[in-house]
Design a protein that fits this description.
Helix 5 packs across helix 7 and helix 6 (116-128) packs antiparallel against helix 7 (133-152). The chain is built from 16 helices and 6 strands. The protein has helices spanning 39-54, 59-64, 67-81, 84-88, 98-106, 116-128, 133-152, 178-187, 193-202, 206-210, 245-252, 266-276, 286-297, 302-309, 314-318, 325-341, and strands at 8-10, 19-23, 29-33, 217-220, 223-228, 239-242. It is mainly alpha-helical. It has a 3-stranded antiparallel sheet, with helices on one face. A 3-stranded antiparallel sheet has the order 4-5-6, with no helix packed on it. It has 3 domains: 8-57; 64-152, DNA polymerase, domain 1; 178-328, Intergrase catalytic core (hpI Integrase, Chain A), CATH 1.10.443.10. A hairpin with a 5-residue loop joins strand 2 and strand 3 (29-33).
Length: 342
C-alpha cells in the first residue's frame, strides 16, 4: 500500500505495461501508461510526475499540447492584440507567412519536445532553403511567441533558449579551413569526430547526417557507401554517396548502435570547443559551406556538389559563396604565372 497523496502503480488485467495514477497540481486525477513491463520504470515515472505536480507544472497539458494547438493559440492571441506587425507579413489566405515555414517542420510535434537543439535544426533547415538571417529570425520569433503563450496559459513548464542569427551581414561567409577543422576536432569529444568529418567532406546537412541508420550503409570492393533516400535529402533526389577512406575507417570501429553518427550534445560541445580555440563566431553550419568549397577546390563540378549536398537550385547553392580568400590568391598566382610566361 502507498501513502495517500503519493500516487499508485498498477497493471490492468490483460495488459503488459504498468500504469501510474496521481493527482496533478489542480487536483485532477491523471492515469498514464509507463509503456514498460518493468515496475521500476513506472516507479521512476511516478516520482517524476509527482515532483512536477508539486512544483505546479502542467504535466497533463504538456503531454498533449501539440504544434497545431500552439499555432491556433498564436493566431488567436495575435487577433486579440491586433498585432500590426503580423498584418504586414500575411499571406493571401490571411495567415502570417511565418507559419508556412513552421508548419512543415513542426507539424504533429509535442511542444514540450521543442528544445534549443530543435530550434537550431530548424534554423539550419531555413538557411539551407536560402532564407536570410533576418527572415529566419522573424520566423523563429513566431515560434518563440507560441512557446511563451504555452507557458502563460499553463500548457508548458518553460521556454527553452531561443537562438538568434546575426543580421549585421546579409550573407554568412564563414569557412572552416583544414587547420581550423583539425583544431575544432581535437577540442571535441571523439564520439563527435565521425559526424564532423562527414559534414566537412560532403557538405551534407546536420539533420540528414543525424538520420542515417546502419541499414543505409553498404560496402563494395573495400569502399563504404551510404544510401540516402529522398526524404533525407534536401532536393528530394535519392543519393548513393561514398565515404572517404578516413571516415570509413572510423565507422568500422563503431558499435552498431543507432543512429550511425553520434550527435550527443553537439551544440553544447561545439560552443565549448570554439571558445577553447578562440574562434567564438564559428558555426556548425560553416562545415556545410566548407564541405561545398572543399569539393569545388578538388575540381568537382557544381552540379555534382549540389547533388551531394542536396542543394535544389543553383541560386541557393551560390549564396554559400564558396570562393575563399585562398581561392582568390591562387587565381592571382595563376595570373601572375601566365603574365610572367607571356
Amino acid at each position: 500500500m502507498r501513502l495517500r497523496g503519493t500516487g499508485s502503480i498498477f497493471r490492468k488485467q490483460g495488459t503488459r505495461f504498468w500504469q501510474i495514477s496521481y493527482y496533478d497540481s489542480n487536483g485532477v486525477q491523471v492515469q498514464e501508461s509507463s509503456k514498460s513491463e518493468k515496475k521500476s520504470v513506472a516507479e521512476a515515472l511516478l516520482r517524476d510526475r509527482l515532483a512536477k505536480a508539486e512544483q505546479g507544472l502542467p504535466v497533463a497539458e504538456m503531454k498533449s499540447w501539440k504544434y497545431e494547438d500552439a499555432r491556433e493559440a498564436f493566431i488567436k492571441d495575435s487577433k486579440v492584440k491586433g498585432n500590426r506587425g503580423l498584418k504586414k507579413y500575411k499571406r493571401r489566405d490571411g495567415e502570417p507567412w511565418s507559419l508556412m515555414h513552421l508548419d512543415k517542420f513542426f507539424k504533429g510535434r509535442l511542444m514540450k519536445t521543442v528544445t534549443t537543439d530543435t530550434i537550431h535544426d530548424f534554423i539550419e533547415d531555413r538557411l539551407d532553403a536560402g532564407k536570410s538571417n533576418g527572415t529566419v529570425n522573424r520566423i523563429v520569433a513566431a515560434l518563440s511567441r507560441m512557446l511563451h503563450i504555452g507557458v502563460r496559459d499553463g500548457k508548458l513548464a518553460r521556454v527553452p533558449h531561443i537562438p538568434k542569427l546575426d543580421e549585421s551581414a546579409a550573407v554568412r561567409t564563414g569557412f572552416v579551413e583544414d587547420d581550423v577543422f583539425n583544431k575544432v576536432r581535437k577540442a571535441l569529444p571523439k564520439n563527435l569526430h565521425p559526424l564532423l568529418l562527414f559534414l566537412y567532406t560532403t557538405g551534407c546537412r546536420v539533420g540528414a547526417a543525424k538520420a542515417i541508420k546502419w541499414s543505409q550503409i553498404e560496402e563494395r570492393d573495400g569502399k563504404m557507401y551510404v544510401r540516402l533516400p529522398s526524404v533525407q535529402v534536401k532536393n528530394k533526389e535519392p543519393l548513393l554517396l561514398r565515404f572517404t577512406n578516413e571516415l570509413a575507417a572510423l565507422l568500422r570501429k563503431l558499435p552498431r548502435s543507432e543512429p550511425v553518427f553520434d550527435a550527443t550534445n553537439l551544440r553544447r560541445e561545439w560552443d565549448a570547443a570554439i571558445i577553447k580555440i578562440a574562434l567564438p563566431d564559428l558555426l556548425v553550419h560553416d562545415l556545410r559551406r566548407s564541405g561545398a568549397r572543399n569539393l569545388s577546390s578538388a575540381g568537382v563540378p557544381e552540379s555534382v556538389i549540389m547533388k551531394i549536398g542536396g542543394w535544389k537550385t543553383a541560386s541557393v547553392f551560390r549564396r554559400y559563396n564558396i570562393v575563399s580568400t585562398k581561392d582568390i590568391d591562387r587565381a592571382m598566382d595563376a595570373l601572375e604565372e601566365r603574365n610572367g610566361k607571356a
